[in-house]
Records
---
Amino acid sequence: MQTILSIGLDGISYGMVLFIISIGLSIMMGLMRVVNLAHGAFAMIGGYLASYAMRDLGAGYALAIVVAVIGTIIISIPLEILLYRRIYRKSDALTQLLLTIGITFVIIGLANFIFGPTLKAIPLPNALSGPLDIGFRMIPTHRVFVIVCGVITALALWLLIDKTEFGIRLRASVDNSDMADSLGIRTEWIYAATFALAVGLGAFGGVVGAELLPIEPFYALRYMVTFLVVVSVGGAGSIAGALAASLLLGLADTTGKYLAPEYGEFFFYLAVIVIAFLFPRGLFGRAH
Amino acid sequence: MKKSATLLSAAVAIGLMTGGASADVIKVGVIGTMSGPYALFGKNFKMGIDAWVAEHGNKVGSHTVEFIYRDEESPNPAKSKALAQELLVKDKVQYLAGVYFTPDAMAIAPLLDESKTPLVVMNAATSAIVQKSPYIVRTSFTMWQNTVPAAKVAKTNGSKKVAIAVSDYGPGIDAEAAFKKTFEAEGGKVVEAIRMPLNTTDFGPIMQRIKDSGADTIFTFLPAGPPTLGFVKAYIDNGLKAGGVKLMSTGDVVTEPDLPTIGDAGIGILSTYHYAVSHDSPENKAFIAQIVKDGGKLDEITMTSVAAYDGARVIYKMIEATDGKRDPAKAVDAVKGMKWISPRGPVSIDPDTRHIRQNVYLRTVEKVDGKLINKEIKTFEAQPDWALSSK
C-alpha cells in the first residue's frame, strides 16, 4: 500500500511537470492551430534564463521564475511578429513544421554557443530542496511544490479561458475569426496575447520542471516528443484533457520504471497506444 | 557495404604508397563527443592532447604530427564508423584515437585490421573492446578496473546488503557483473540489481525500489554526463542519504564539473576512480597548469583529458618506433609494457591486454577551501583490468 502511494506521488509530480510544459503547446495547437515544435525550445530558454539569473545575477528563486517567464516572452516577440503571425490557423502543416523545427535548431545552436553544452542547474532555495517527511515516506520537497504549481496553473487557466472577458474573445476568435473580426474584436492582439501565454507557460514549466527534465541545449528536441504525445493524448486545446493525459502518462511511466526499469519507456508508449486506440481524438478532444 | 570496404582498402593502399613520399605529416584522427550532452568530455580529449603537444612539440623526429577531430556526438555506432572511414579514406590518417562510447568503439574496431590502423581508446570502458582488434590500445580505464576496488571497500566499510543500479549498456553491465562477483566473493549479498535505460532522467521510482529492497548500500554506475547529477540528487532528496543508505560509485558519477551543482549535500559520497583532478603529484600540477595556460578552465577538467594526454604519449611512441611508417604491429608492440608517470600516478600498458594498468583511488567528496573536490583517501596500486587479467 505504502509503495503504491509512493509511486502514485512520484507519478503525479512527474505528470504535473509534463502538464505545465505541455499545456502551452496544447493551447497553441488547439486554439491557434499551430504545431509549434519550438515549444520545447521556449521551455529551455526559460530554464536557461532562470539559471543565469540565479547563478550569475544572484536572483532568488521566485524572481528567477518571473525573469524566465517575462524574458522568454520578450525573446519570442520578434519571432511572433516576423514568423508566427504568418502561420496562425491558416497555413498547412508542413509549413508550420518546417518553420518551427528550424527555429528549434537555431535556438539549440545559440544555446550551445552562449551557455555551452553542459547541464545548467537551477539551484533550489533551501525551503524547496532536500527531503520532506510526509508521514509514510520522504519525498523531495520540490515535488510537492511542482504538484501545487500544476494545480494552480490548471485552475488559473480554466478561469482565464472559461470565465473572463479575454477568454470569451479568445474563444470567439478561435471559433470564427472573420466574424469576431467584424464584431470589433482585435483578433491580432488576441492571438499575440495567447501566443505570449503559451510561451510563458512553457518557460514556467521549463524552470519548475528542471529537476526532472534537466536544462541542456538538446532539451528542445529531447522532450518534444513527450510533450506532443501529452497534447495528442489529451486532445489539443483542452485543459482538462492535458491534465488527465499528463497524470495518466506520468503514472504509467513511473510505475513502469518502478516495476521493470529495464523496459525503459515501454509502458509510457503502451499507455499512449491504448488511449489513442480508445480515444482517437484524445481524451477530451473536440471534433473540428 | 562490400563495395565500400573494397573502396576503403583500395584508398588505404593508395594512401600507403603516397604516404612514403610525404612522410613529414602524420595524421591522427580523434573521434570524440565534441557537441551534444557529452561535449565536455570531447573537449577534454582536445585539452589533454593540446597539453601534450604544447609540452612536447608537434614533431616526432622529422615527422610532424597533426590531430584531426571528428564529432561522435552520442552513442551512435553507424555514425562513428562512417567518421572513421572518412578519416581513413579521405584524410588518410595513420592513427585513430579518442572514442567516448563503447558501442562506437565496437563499430570502429573491424576497420582497424582492414586498414592497418592502430586505435588508442581514450575513454570507452567496456573490457571487451581491446579484444576486438590486436591494434587497439587503451589509456582510459575499464569498469572492472574501477569497480572491483569499490566492492572491496563496500565490504570493509561494513555493507551487507547492496542494491546495484547501473545504466543499461555495455559498461553498466560490466560494472554490475564486476561488483556482484567481487562483493559476493567477499561474503556480501546483492539484494537488487536494476538496469536503468540510458535516457532516464527521473530517478524517483528507482530510489523507491532501492528503498523497498532493504539495501544498506547502493552501488551505481552511469556514464559521466547529465543523468549522473539527477541520480545523486534523487538519492539525497528521496531521503535515502538521511536514512543512512550509503552510496558507492565509480568516479563517473561524481566528476569534478558536476560537484558544484550537487552541492554540499554530496559531501561524503564515496567513489573509486583512476583520476581525481585534486590528485597530489608534481606531474598532475604541471599537467593542470599547462591546460589552464592554454586557456582551459580548471572547473572543466575531467578524466578524459588525462586519458587523452597519455594517449598522445602512446601515439608519439608509436610514431617514433615505426619512424612514421604504417606498421600497426610494430607500433603496438613498441608500447606493450611501456611505463611512465602519468598525472594520475604510475601507469603501464599491460603487454597481454594492451590496456592500461594504474592505481585506483578511493575518494570521498570533501570541501577544501570552499570548493568541493574528490579527495583521495586510499590507493589500490597497479590495478589491471580485472575482467581480462587475474592479477
Note: Chain A touches chain B through 41 residues (CB under 8 Å).
---
Amino acid sequence: MAKITNEELLNSIKNKFDDITSVTEPFGLLTIETSRESIIDLLTFLKTDPTLQFIYLTDLTAIHYPEQEKPIGIIYHLHSLVNNVRIRIKVFVADGDVHMPTATVLWNGANWMERETYDFFGVVFDGHPDLRRILNIDDMTVFPMRKEYPLEDPNRVDKRDYFFGR
Amino acid sequence: MRNHPVYTDNDPQTEYSTLNLGPTHPATHGVFQNVLTLDGERIVSGVSTIGYIHRAFEKIAEHRPFYQITPLTDRMNYCSSPINNMGWHMTVEKLLGIQMPKRVDYLRVIIMELARISDHIVCNGVLGVDTGAYTGFMYLMVYREHIYEIYEEICGSRLTTNIGRIGGFERNFNHIAFDKTRKFLKEFAVGLKEFENLFNRNRIFIDRTKDVAAVDAETALSYSWSGPLLRAAGVDYDVRAMEPYSSYEDFDFEVPVGTNGDVFNRFLVRNAEMWQSLRMIEQALEKIAKEPSDIFHADVPEFYLPPKEEVYNNMEALIYHFKIVMGEVPTPNTEVYHAVEGANGELGFYLVNDGGRTPYRLHFRRPSFINYQMYAPMSRGMLLSDAIINMSSLNVIAGELDA
C-alpha cells in the first residue's frame, strides 16, 4: 500500500488550486480551507486523480462561529481507501449568503449528509435534488445547531458560570 | 397543520396503491417510516421519513463536559453501546494526548468485540425471523444474555452501559468477568456453529436471501457505506485494519469480504466476523495474562475521575475530582476526528474543542444514518417481502439513525 504523505498531497493540490488558505495538520490529518467557487473542482480533482483517489466521502457537516466574518463553515472529510489517507476540507460562507454547490454530483451519499447540514445549519446546497429537513420536523423555522439557539431556557440563572467563580 | 407525507389509496393519477410502512410496524424493528408506492406486491418508489426519535445529541453535547457525553453515545447504537462509549473515550484521549497502557487496550478489545458479537447476533438472528426461521434466533439470543452478564460484572448495567471512563476503566475486571468470558468463548463457538448449520446451506433461506438487494462495490462506495455492508459488497475496508486503534495492530484477524453485497452475503460476512471476534477475544485474554494485572487505567489524574473513597480521604484526589467535574482542566484548542469500527460501520467522532469545559462542536458520523439513505432508492422494483429482509440485514438502529 503506497501511502502518500500530507506534504505530497498538499503539493499536488496546490499545483492545481491557488486559493488554498489556512493549512493545518491537527493529529496528522491534513486540514485545508478553500473557497466556495473552487470546492467542487477540488473535490472532483481529489476523487478522480489516479494517484490520490479520494473516492470515499466519510462525512459532511458544518460548524458555526458567530463572531467570524464568515460564520458558517462546511466541513468535508474525505478518505482515500487506496492510500489510506484522510483529508479535511473547510469552506466558510457569509451569514446572509449561506449557499454551497452540492456534492451529490460526486457522491450519492452526500444527499442525506447535506440534508442534515441544511436541517441544522441552514446551509442551502444549490443543485441538491431533494433539499428538505431530515431529522427535525418540516415546519420548524430555525436552524437549531447555530449558536444563537440555546439549549435551555436562557432566563435560567442557576447554572450561570459566575456562580462557580468563572 | 404538519405536512407529513400522508398518501391515500385513492390517488386519482395512478393505479398504484400506497402503503405507509411504519413508523411503528412490527416487521421493521424500530421507528422507521417508509411511504411505498406499490404495484401489486412490487415497490414502484418509496420515501423514507426519519427523525422520529431525534434527541439532539449534538446540541446537548455542546453543553456537557466530556465525561457526561458518554451516556449520550450509549443511546445511539444501543445494540452495541460499549463500542460507542469507547469510541468516544478514545476520541477524547486522542485530543488530550493520553497514551493507554496495553492492558487497558486489550480489555477494551474484549469488550468491543463482545459488543460486536451481540450486535451481529441480533441482526442475523432477526434476519432469520424475518425469513420465517424463528429457531436460529432463539438458539442464538441466549448468548447475548451471556454477553450482557459480562457487561454487568464490569460496569453494572446491560443495555446502555456507560462502560469505562476517559483514561481507562472505572474499576478492574474481577475474576468472574474473565471466567464468564472464557465460558462464553467455549459455548458460543458451539452455538454459532449450530446457527450456521441451520442457515448456511438451508435451501429455503438461500432462496429467500440470495441476490436480494445486491449492491455492487462502486454503488456502495458512492453511498459511503461502511462496515459489514460494504465488505459484503467486496470492499475490504475495516477501520480496525486500516487505522488500528486500541492496539488492534497487535491482533491477528481476517477481514471477511463478500462478493455481490446481497442479503445472503451480508449474513455470511456478519457470521464470519463473529468468528474473527472470538479469535480476537481469545488473543486478548492471552495477552492480558502477560500484563501486570492491576492496571486498568492510564496514569492521568487530571483527566481520570478518581475512585470515590479516595475523593473522601485524599487531598489530591479531591482536588482532581473537583477540577474534572467542574471542567477546570485546560484542554487543547484544536479539532480531532476519530473513527472506530462500529458494528454497523465506521463510527466517527468529529470533535472541535475551544479549550472550554464542553466541546465547541461535536459531530457523530453515524453509520446507520449513512447506510440507510440507500434503502428507498434500492427498494425500487423489489418485492415488499424482500424489502423487509433488506431492511433487516441493513441492521439500521433507530437510535443511531436519528441521534
Note: The CA atoms of residues 83 and 342 of chain B lie 6 Å apart.
